Amino acid sequence: MGDGDTAIRLDEGEVGRIFREESGRSVAALIHIFGDIDLAEDAVQEAFAVALGRWPRKGVPPNPGGWITTTARNHAIDRLRRESRGRELLSEAAVLSPGSDDPGKPPEVGPVQDDRLRLIFTCCHPALSTQAQMALTLRLLGGLSTKQVASSFLVTETTMARRLVRAKHKIKAARIPYRVPEAHELPDRLRPVLAVVYLVYNAGLTGSAKPDLCAEAIRLARILAALMPDEPEVGGLLALLLLSESRRASRTRPDGSLVLLGEQDRTHWDRALIEEGQAILRRCLRRNQPGAYQLQAAINAVHADALTVEQTDWPQIVILYDQLLGVAPTPVVALNRAIAIGELQGPAAALALVDELDLDNYHPFHATRADLLRRLGRHREAEAAYQRAAAMAPTDAERAFLRLGGRASR
Amino acid sequence: MTHYLLSVHRVEGEAREPMTDEEMAQSHEQLAVLEQEMKSAGAWVVSGRLHESATATVVRMAGGEVVTTDGPFVESKEYLGGFYVIQAEDLDGALAWASRVTGAIKVPIEVRPFAGFEA
């Protein structure tokens, strides 16, 4: 690449974008080499600081991720040489370097394992709290700064920094392993990984946090799907997120209030995301191991096929909810199934099912009851249910929407 | 290798479904087999059962003197009923043993890493 005179338009934003794309891979590779999360994070941070000074003048190297990893590794080695504790770690690291993990242990089998996969299983180890799992995943794999992670969870940077320090200390002290679980452990260990990605997406849907957590969750789901192509639930999660994302712009009005699925302008749904999600889903379903994410994706795929709400294939949706209830027998799934049945058999049938559910603290339960009661002409009860839902709704926009529903029912 | 404390917590006067003699015998047998396996795997370091917390005595320094008092250090319904000290490659290794202990005795097991251990 040319010298300093070459005008390369590369601003901090561009380096930031590359950072978000590449840092997870570099951090994961360095943790594998040195067995130390803090050292890996610091070294990758330093490497990007070097890049920020260098790339705008000299251009981006052909393999920016590789450049970052190599530079970070050299920084880490330099730093370890300066510290006496470091020299010990360094001699251990030489033994632990990739390929010579443990002479007594057979090499890991299966597809080539990316260090990011080890890292996400460490971040989402069941010995860590869900909050810590989410924070670590966004910080280490997503490359978000502590400040950005803090703002995603509406806590102060100090609180988040403390949470991350505690989690990393537990990983180190309790020796939470840095490896991909074996096949027999995978069902148990994959569950929290998928849950974390799904929670990150939902945090993005309900909040207006910067950075965009929905995009972050989709990026993580794409990495997982690429690394675990044989796990249908991983593909199911990615399909679910893509199908949900296709409607994100239609979910809210300019004032932030929610637009129900039946009232959304379907011409604004993103067809490219729908097609991608449906194609991924078809590939997963062929394996015939339906799980909760694949079934939820399938329900979303049926909605996406209906160009108008009247064209919705409700019998198919009820069948899918029946299956979903089989694998995930939760009252929330039962509530959604009841709504689908209401579309087929009318509000009275739905209300009978809804009233059996123990969801008093879940505001969509009251919103659903309110809507069914209104359709049955039981306006006074509908009004009361709308007010209960509004009182519990998490955002101003939703509260306003539900109060409006209440008024409209008079 | 890291050392872990596997502690068995009991709750004072907790209404538990009492084990039948047969279940009790089965539980003891499972534990005996398990401990043997721990030993042959090189994981077992030491283990023991404790009398209930009413048998505890506390000594503490007060005004430069040692004062002896009756009772556990913290009055609480939960007390340590027994423990294993094991060594394992990593937390997953320790959790695998802990899972088998809880499977045999049907009470929760807390797993904690030692910050230092000498025997």
Account of the 3D structure:
The complex is a heterodimer of chains A (410) and B (119). With 410 residues, chain A is mostly helical. Among the domains of chain A are: 1-99, Orthogonal Bundle (Rna Polymerase Sigma Factor, Chain: A); 330-410, Serine Threonine Protein Phosphatase 5, Tetratricopeptide repeat, CATH 1.25.40. Helix content of chain A is 69%, strand content 0%. In chain A, helix 3 packs across helix 4 (84-96) and helix 6 (130-141) crosses helix 9. Chain A starts with 11 loop residues before the first helix and ends with a helix. Chain B is an alpha+beta fold and 119 residues long. Chain B has one domain (2-13, 20-113): Dimeric alpha+beta barrel (Alpha-Beta Plaits, 2-Layer Sandwich), CATH 3.30.70.1060. Chain B is built from 2 helices and 6 strands. Chain B has helices at residues 21-40, 91-105, and strands at 2-11, 44-49, 57-62, 65-70, 78-88, 109-113. A 4-stranded antiparallel beta sheet of chain B has the order 2-5-1-6. Chain B has a two-stranded antiparallel sheet with strand order 3-4. In chain B, helix 1 (21-40) runs antiparallel to helix 2. Chain B is globular. The model of chain B has no long low-confidence stretch (mean pLDDT 90). Chain A binds chain B through residues 125, 127, 173-177, 185, and chain B through 2, 4, 89-92, 95, 111-113, 115.
Question: Can you tag this structure with a few keywords?
Answer:
heterodimer, A: 410 residues, mainly alpha, Rna Polymerase Sigma Factor, Chain: A, Serine Threonine Protein Phosphatase 5, Tetratricopeptide repeat, disordered N terminus, B: 119 residues, alpha+beta, two-stranded antiparallel sheet, 2 helices
